[in-house]
Amino acid sequence: MIPYVQELLKTRPDRIVWASDWPHAFVKGTMPNTTDLLDMLLDWVPDESARRRILVDNPAALYGFA
Known about the structure:
Distance between the termini: 29 Å
Strand content: under 5%
Shape: globular
Number of helices: 3
């Protein structure tokens, strides 16, 4: 995932938002731990300012709160 995410960050950092399919309605079996999935973001996007953009600034712009 890291090379894919790095390319996205390089290409369109202003268009990335974090999302999940919680409550994982279509998963058959053990549900993934959503916190573990979010923790992966620290590995995928080590830069704090880029994470803020993904988690705060981009969603605010997308939903008209910016």
